[in-house]
């Protein structure tokens, strides 16, 4: 057969009618061919746009796969509109507005095609077409790998998308393909995506990896069913469902995901069976919104690489875990927001660094016949409206078995807490809860520890071998109602035959767990730090008077407007004290402040002096400064932020809490950020402890204005904003002169002028540090001076003390 020719074997109903012909072009051969004919194409490159409209076989020569290239300059290289067989061709598409291979009708077979294109899609199936596509490869870095649209279908077997500029496989507009043993990788969008009502994707034995979007994405009422599939090494989430999507995963493996392994919201429904989820950077399962639901049966979620809960259920969503295992994670299960619910049956939660089950913001959790092992906290019901039931569960080897706080009211029935390293059950800060037929054994602390006069019910409970005692009840202090406290019936411990709660609010034992705060002391927190703070609350008067401290303030370089503001505020406080002594009303003065300005303008120094002034006036007990930032206040999971913020307040008791870069608590793209929890806690503590702690929030001017505008509850707590302006060249020179005097250096003739010019020309961008820059400049001059003088054999006093213009560092 000559180069560039097409040999056509014409067949009929009789073998006597069989004949062979040769054609100069593919188009001519296709025009002459009849149904059943076989077109064998000679090796070569064909710049033709082929349209197959008959049930023919179009193939390359035997044993020379890829030797036939269909590569027109534009348009669709290969269009199939019949039940043809297309085999062993190399198809190249160059038109970004058209597919490389388009299947529009019939039930054709595409076998062994190699599609290399920069097209809208590599292979596209539309309408009534139902092709069978086997062992085909698509390399299309400019568009979709395989697109099935407009009601199209078909089966793709052992196919591979090696690159795609968008989705690897896209199913839209009522299409419904089936993928078997396919591989999709190196896609710039999602690996597999199905969208639109009536769209359905089925995948069996497939692998999706190295994609820059989600591994699998199902949206807008589409459905998908994946069996025995692997999804791994994505840049985005492993699996994403949105807007009434329905997905079933059976015997699948989702792993090595930097974001959420599975994220679903907006009334989507996910069913997982015998599926493993591991090595995820955020949540293993992230479930959002009313009507959204996950049902997991015989699944395993483990080996988190991030600091987020393995299962997150919020905003009214529902999750059911039946016979599942969750282990080696920071937190196992977080359910939050009113209407959210989790049901866990016959499941294991183990090797949890923080909290195994956390219920907050009015959510509900129901656990039946579950085992919780080796967690910092087994189950924590955090706040008012949060509750549910733990029934016939075992909590073994946790630091604390169950915590109930802030009005939460769960029911714990027939549960056993074995070998907790602290309390078996801990109730504080207005928590309630009913504990029925429960047992705590081998606790290193108390069995049941109920403080703050919490109205907890204990009925037919038992403690055994609890190191500090089986039961400890401590009230909330003199303001506790007479009828508050636990209700105890038929409870026993191995140290006594029976137990009843105290009839009056007199505490059985007064313990450190009564320290004041938003949550009270939580087991495992740093209570040893709190004791000296409480003991030293009545600190002696400071050594310096307010006049002496104001003198130090006045000695600071620049800051004239700041000094006026602080003096005005100090005068208001002092006159108010004098009016009170004279029997007159004193104006209410809010002492909390906002400091705005660039770094290095003296905000921390002024905050320290302000605290000392307030202490000298008797407004604060000690006046010390506790400086924190976002990292000190915001925890990695719900609840830890409130505790961190409370601890910061405790350290600042009697002094000033200075929050630097406070705007970071409310980032513009907050999402699920826990900074809001820190802000809410701050607002409450600033009100509850307004006489004992002064709060100063500080940061860049524009960012702090945004922070206060989006948090009116915070803004209302502050009396005034003090702006710290940038230092001018003359003020920076004065700081260097002060540093030189303090360290016994002198500026040689011409050095002051050189410094002024240096500070005039230095870039004033984000890295400029004002006073810090001046101090760093002085330190650099001292280093350069030392390098110069060290070369002198017998330096004079002037040599050792004078700083010259050449000692200045270069401009950054």
Automatic annotation (TrEMBL):
Domain of life: Bacteria
Domain Carbohydrate-binding/sugar hydrolysis intervals: 41-172, 313-474
Keyword field: ATP-binding, Nucleotide-binding, Repeat
SMART domains: AAA, CASH, PbH1
InterPro entries: AAA+_ATPase, AAA_lid_6, ATPase_AAA_core, Beta_helix, Carb-bd_sugar_hydrolysis-dom, CbxX/CfxQ, CbxX/CfxQ_RuBisCO_ESX, P-loop_NTPase
Annotated PANTHER family: AAA-TYPE ATPASE FAMILY PROTEIN / ANKYRIN REPEAT FAMILY PROTEIN (PTHR43392), AAA-TYPE ATPASE FAMILY PROTEIN _ ANKYRIN REPEAT FAMILY PROTEIN (PTHR43392:SF2)
Name of the protein: Sporulation protein K-like protein
Organism this protein belongs to: Streptomyces lividans TK24
